[in-house]
Specification:
- The chain is α/β, with parallel strands linked by helices and about 210 residues long.
- The chain is built from ten helices and five strands; from the N terminus they run E-H-E-H-E-H-E-H-E-H-H-H-H-H-H.
- Helix 8 packs across helix 9.
């Protein structure tokens, strides 16, 4: 069984490789970007892809679902720190081969999710399932603070969290917390989605960034 790790965080990838080697003798490969992932899937589409969607270079739900259609045998485990509920509902509703794990999930849940994916099933982690089916109160959409708006613009222009922190004379942790709050408030999952939002909101224009 081919398992492709599409997670660019070294510590997370190392932990996942250790766990999978405990579970069985699998062919473990690494994909650093979308092009590398597609090349591996062209060689063997009967695979499990473990992906940190928020950090990988997949643009949005549409692109992920197109890939899922192209490689119909591939099982997808979205293993991320945080994902918007609207995004999860869309991809899970569109494909029965998409599983969802949060990086805060307990080890037993991670193991079970991987087992299900390898067998051709899927698992939605308990925390995500609870959020999906929770009754959401009707409330006005959260508004970004001035600082969050400035950081959103920097993200949309392609700056990394480290670069933004250095520019603002802030810590990496502080900027990363702002980033998480921005994505949560706006229902975003990655920098590409943030760029599209910033363009629509007029925070940047096409002369500054070509999407």
């Amino acid at each position: 069984m081919l398992i492709i790790l599409s997670d660019n965080q070294d510590i997370t990838r190392a932990g996942m490789m250790y766990l999978l080697r405990q579970m069985g003798d699998y062919d473990l490969r690494r994909a650093n970007d979308k092009a590398g992932l597609m090349e591996l899937l062209r060689q063997d589409g009967d695979a499990v892809v473990v992906m940190d969607y928020t950090l990988f270079d997949i643009n949005d739900a549409d692109e992920l679902l197109v890939m899922a259609d192209c490689f119909a045998q591939t099982r997808w485990v979205l293993f991320s720190e945080d994902l918007s509920i609207d995004f999860v509902k869309r991809v899970v509703g569109a494909s029965r081969l998409v599983s969802v794990l949060l990086k805060e999930s307990p080890i037993n849940e991670i193991r079970e999710c991987l087992r299900q994916a390898i067998k051709g099933g899927r698992l939605i982690c308990q925390r995500t399932a609870e959020m999906m089916f929770a009754v959401q109160p009707i409330e006005e959409k959260s508004v970004l603070t001035k600082t969050e708006t400035e950081i959103l613009k920097e993200i949309a222009l392609g700056a990394t969290t480290k670069e933004i922190a250095e520019k603002r004379f802030s810590s990496f942790h502080t900027v990363n917390t702002h980033r998480k709050n921005i994505f949560r408030k706006l229902g975003l999952n990655n920098a590409h989605e943030a760029t599209k939002y910033a363009l629509r909101a007029g925070l940047i224009d096409s002369a500054e960034y070509y999407i």
